[in-house]
Specification:
With 203 residues, the chain is an alpha+beta fold. Helix content is 18%, strand content 34%. A hairpin with a 2-residue loop joins strand 6 and strand 7.
């Protein structure tokens, strides 16, 4: 390392400032920004973290990922397909059963990457009354099986979120969470997790 040592008087001054600034911040009533916590999703114990998990990770874990092509036909993904840099892709899905799938979107960074290296940017699941409960029990949101995450439970677990009798929401700087509930039963019937990215939406 090539860092130079500071002279003693400057070091003392900086130390004093470090002690002084937090005190000023508290006096102004401004709390330090807390880092947003990413809430994971699990399918049969296989964890998916929006903004971190790649398509290749899903494939390696045996999950079936497909995509809608230019002819609007759903095809199995080819992880070697080249994606453009700084772009957002929609139309993907992760199969749970023949009648239920997660909808996913992908994002690329400043460099072009293969589809397998692209990161999951958005994850959405809609559930219906006819869905097999034994299958739903294998899906969890933040460690809680979706069959147990009622509106009442969500309000207790996430008291700083906001919403009404059909939704409980949190829109932070980096992450957006939407939990949707049946108005008559309060049972979870869908959720969406999305990470905000600064991408070229115009292509």
């Amino acid at each position: 390392m090539n860092a130079r040592k500071a002279r003693a008087p400057i070091s003392l001054l900086l130390a004093a400032l470090m002690l002084f600034l937090p005190a000023c911040s508290q006096e102004d009533g401004q709390d330090e920004k807390t880092e947003e916590v990413l809430l994971p999703i699990s399918i049969n114990g296989k964890e998916i973290k929006v903004g971190e998990t790649t398509v290749q990770t899903l494939l390696d874990e045996g999950l079936e990922v497909s995509w809608v092509d230019e002819n609007y036909e759903r095809i199995t993904v080819d992880p070697a397909t080249e994606l453009e840099a700084n772009s957002y892709y929609t139309g993907g899905s992760i199969k749970v059963t023949d009648n239920m799938s997660f909808s996913i979107s992908l994002v690329t960074d400043e460099e072009a990457v293969s589809l397998g290296e692209a990161v999951i940017a958005r994850l959405e699941l809609r559930m219906a009354a006819e869905n097999d409960k034994s299958v739903l029990e294998t899906i969890s949101f933040d460690g809680v099986p979706v069959t147990e995450l009622t509106l009442e439970n969500a309000m207790e677990k996430y008291p700083d979120w906001t919403g009404n009798e059909v939704m409980w929401l949190h829109y932070g700087l980096d992450y957006k969470y939407d939990l949707l509930f049946d108005i008559s039963t309060g049972i979870l019937n869908g959720f969406n997790i999305e990470r905000t990215y600064d991408v070229d939406w115009n292509g």
